[in-house]
Structure formats: structure tokens, C-alpha cells
Amino acid sequence: MRGALTMITGNLLANVPHQLGDEQIVELLSAPNVRIERIVSLGHATPPDVWYDQDRAEWVLLLAGSAGLIFEGEAEPLLLEPGSYVHIAAHVRHRVAWTDRSVPTVWLAIHYR
Amino acid sequence: MRGALTMITGNLLANVPHQLGDEQIVELLSAPNVRIERIVSLGHATPPDVWYDQDRAEWVLLLAGSAGLIFEGEAEPLLLEPGSYVHIAAHVRHRVAWTDRSVPTVWLAIHYR
Question: Do B85 and A11 make contact, defined as CB atoms within 8 angstroms?
């Protein structure tokens, strides 16, 4: 029996928008301890002097495009390319310095506690 | 401060073996409620008549290669290509019917409770 609760499938690289106002965030899984999202960026960045400071740890994978991720206190952004992953512990302040302007950047974000 | 506990980074598509005996499983994250692994297959499949029946739910993403995943009671395998994901609820019996024989198949597996 293939039901909505047992088996949900799709493709992260399908239906990627090539024009975007805000970043697009699609929730793929929401469970008590884990939330999985696909995020599509196109030139988006965190506003200057804004830092993400999250209660939950996050494991991020970049699937397409490219991005620079800065951690507070670091001089240089971490370059993320397809296949790159990074674990961000809770309350580790970070921001997205840049994302590719020419092609969509597709992220998989796993928030967990 | 960039420490082992706060920021762990790498690339899932780097150091992919092109010759394999058994499937290669590398643990990327182990937390009380979540375990993340990279799995590399090269023609591997679940032995006939063996079914996976897992206590934890699993969210799987295929990053490279291709595979067929069968759920008990289904006639046809679900075809997984790069970007394909599938959620497998706990105790939903399934098996890997086949994986690509010509190129490595790279999976991301997220086990959670």
C-alpha cells in the first residue's frame, strides 16, 4: 500500500524557479524532531549585519548553484558548491554572504533537535 | 571560532569510490534523534526476498547515479534519479531492486525518530 503517510516522493531539482522575488522555501518533511526544507535562492543574501541565530541545529546541503556562508568571527566565507554540506550547531551565528546570480541555488536544509 | 563541534563541512560528491566490494556507508552526523549517512552503491541491490524493516523513519535523497526502490506490495520499483527523494515511514518494508552498474550511485540517508 503506497499511502501519503508512508511514502512521499519527488525531485529536488524539478520545478526550480528561474525567476524569484523572495527566496522560495518548500517544506518536505515536518516531524517533531526534524524539519526538512528545499530552499531556492537566486542572488539572495542575508541583509548586512543580520545574523541567523537558531535554536535548532541545522545540516545544510547545496545541490545546485553556489553560495558563500559566513560564520561570525570568520574573515572569509565558506564556499559551497554542488555536493557541499555544512553542519551548523544551534546558536552558531552565520549569514549567507552571497548566492549565485546567474543560476538558481538549491539547498536542502535539515533542522533538528 | 570554527570548531569541530560547531561546524563540520565536506562534499558528498568528493572521494566517491569507483570500485567497491560492499556498499560504502559514511556517517556524517549522529545525534540522539537524527543520523545522516552517505551511501555509495555500484550495482548493489538488496538480496532477493530480503526486506528492510526499520524502526526509524528514513528520508532518502539520490545525488548521483540511479536506483530502483521497491515497496512491499508494489509491482514496479520506484525509479530514483539525481534529485529524487523518498520518505520511508518506519516499518514500511522495502528493498533496493537495483543500482546503476556503470557509475556510482550516491545516496543521502536521514534516519530519524
Answer: yes
Instruction: State whether residue A27 sits within 8 Å of chain B by CB.
Output: no
**Candidates A14, A78, A108; nearest CB to B9:** A78
B102 DSSP assignment: S
Contact: A34, B36; criterion CB under 8 Å: no
List chain A residues with CB under 8 Å of B73.
Answer: 1-2
Among A5-9, A29-33, A106-110, B85-89, which stretch is predicted with the lowest mean pLDDT? A5-9
Q: Which of B7, B87, B112 sits opposite A88 (nearest CB)?
A: B7
- Across chain B, where does the E strand assignment appear? 7-11, 24-30, 34-41, 57-64, 67-71, 78-80, 84-88, 94-99, 105-112
CA atoms within 13 A on the CB side of A11: 12
B27-71, pLDDT tens digit by residue?
A: 999 999 999 999 999 999 999 889 999 999 999 999 999 999 999
Q: What is the pLDDT of residues A66-76, one digit of tens each?
A: 999 999 999 89
Place of cell 530502483: B68
Is A6's CB within 8 Å of B89's CB? Answer: yes
| ipTM of the complex, rounded to two decimals | 0.91
